[in-house]
Amino acid sequence: MRTEPEAACGPWSDNEAEMVPATSYVPRKSSRNGALVFSVAVFLAAGAAVLACGIALEARVSLACILGALAAALVATSSLHIALGWEKVVVLRLGKLHRVVGPGFYGTIPILEYGTIRVDQRTIATPFRAERTLTADLVPVNVDAVVFWMVFSAKKACLEVEDYGSAVSWMAQATLRKAIGRASLAEVACRRDQLDSELKDALEEKLDGWGIDIIDVEVRDIVVPRELQASMAAAAVATRERDARMILAEAEADISDMLKDASANYEGDPEAMRLRTMHLAYESVRASGGTLVIPSAFSEGFTNPDAADALAKAAKKG
Q: Under 8 Å CB-to-CB from 282, ≥6 apart: which residues?
């Protein structure tokens, strides 16, 4: 979780953030040089063949031969096509869906048939974001995420939705805003896996009818406004202090119970009390590294109970 100045969200104005999708789907163009070379070759071959036939028949290059060669080249180019290995092409005949072809070589009837759209069936990554969205506890946050998706039905993607790439971006953004609005800031920050799963299930349910499969959804970053950073830090410190004091109180309660039990044991056993006294004296000498000097009359109190009692009575009289 970061504050707003640390987030790489881009220079969005208030109006732009509301009117424009967070990140529009802009597919990266793959090289179609092979298909272009094939079309050029078909154009030249058909034109050259017709022109050669015209020259053979008329023994000269006439305008009719040139026009015929050009027409034949255009017809051949519009009839013979190549779809790349990851593409599906939706072919319409007289405006109605006729078939879905590709990848590889395919042909169409000039004028009557034409390919409306080339559908890329590779996995596509679309970043999106929800800016200044209120959580359930009314905290505005900016959330960046990315959805990985692919088109499994070129027919549905072409017929059911106008621009399926932008539709995925818009739908993902709207679903993210709804999910954030149902959770508190703590839940959004600490339960990213649950949020990812919720977004994936919701998008799959909505986009399946468009022939689009959601592979995964990942929340990349959660941005909290700077003005809330100090209050959240203070709340976290107060919570830690409260927990520390509760642990200390519990420890003191346990220690008091243990001391109470120990005093009951020593009260009924003077010998144990004397042993404890000797142990404390030993521990103090060992810790300080000094020497403990005990008067001979006092030392007898550790071994002779009668002498200890006599010393205690003498101390009281004195």
A: none
